[in-house]
Amino acid sequence: MVYAIVRAGGRQEKVSVGDVLTVDRVQAKAGDTVELAPLLLVDGEEVTSGIDKLAKVKVTAEVVEDLRGPKIVIQKFKNKTGYKKRQGHRQELTRLKVTSIK
User: Fold this and answer.
1) CA atoms in the 13 A half-sphere facing the CB of 5
2) Under 8 Å CB-to-CB from 46, ≥6 apart: which residues?
3) Judging by DSSP bridges, how do beta strands 46-48 and 20-24 pair with one another?
4) What gap in Å lies between CA 99 and CA 81, rounded to an integer?
């Protein structure tokens, strides 16, 4: 089984061909291809982690869609002072489908 550990959206993800992953927003339109930076490649029993060998490895993914994550509610409260603050946040995300690992 061939899989790779890639840097995607500030995190490390384990991917293989056909996987769909959700990462932080990528500046690309739906249908575009994106190249992900490999950190480790496992090809059966052979593990590749050297920087010079990983420079030859390409992990490409296709942008499926842009979406927004779930709403996170941030509330701050201080007792006896009347201080209350409420804020919401939804993270901008992109869904990618891995097309090839070469």
Assistant:
1) 8
2) none
3) unpaired
4) 56
CA distance 38 to 13: 10
Sole residue written with tokens 């901008």: 92
Q: Which two tokens stand for residue 76?
A: 């701050």
- What token pair was written down for 24? 């932080």
Could you tell me the pTM of the whole model? Answer: 0.86
* 69 contacts 90 by C-beta, under 8 angstroms: yes
Q: Based on the number of CB atoms within 10 Å of its own CB, is 62 exposed (0-12), middle (13-18) or buried (19 or more)? A: middle
- Kindly report, residue by residue over 55-94, the tens digit of the pLDDT: 999 999 999 999 999 999 999 999 999 999 999 999 999 9
Determine which helix (DSSP H) or strand (DSSP E) holds 4, and give its type and residue range: strand 2-8
